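If your schedule permits, I should be very grateful for your opinion on a structural question. I have a record of one protein: its chain in single-letter code and its fold written as discrete structure tokens. Kindly check, if you would, that the fold set down in the tokens agrees with what the sequence suggests. I remain grateful for any guidance, and I place the record below:

***
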Amino acid sequence: MRSARAIANEQRIEQIQIVWYKNKRVYGADKVWKAMKRENLVVARCTVERLMRRMGLRGVIRGKAQRTTFADPKAACPLDLVKRQFKADRPNQLWVSDFTYVSTWQGFVYVAFVIDVFSRRIVGWRASRSMRTDFVLDALEQAL
């Protein structure tokens, strides 16, 4: 015997499919959820997202994917000295770093962070308009 939740999910799946197909299979979870609300179909947004993912339904993504990094296949990969165990018993025992980018009206801005694993605080950071090694090293120098 199926539970009431399973039956409700089956009904929601049918409703989601109807809305998704009715809108030319371009709507993502947010627009499907809003369309369902307009039709007085009560369902949580996270439920729509979860069921759409389970069904393999996705909205159309506009624009071209922006590729910001290009790996050098000949370059040696750095060693994983902490073996993916990001735990520390005291401050300044283990630092990790990363950098990311933020899209602005003027173009990309790259930001490098050095984080103390114990306190989870940023101990050094730098921003740059170019993705070069020196700005990452400047963040490390600030942390030191």
In short: The chain has two domains: 4-55, 64-144.
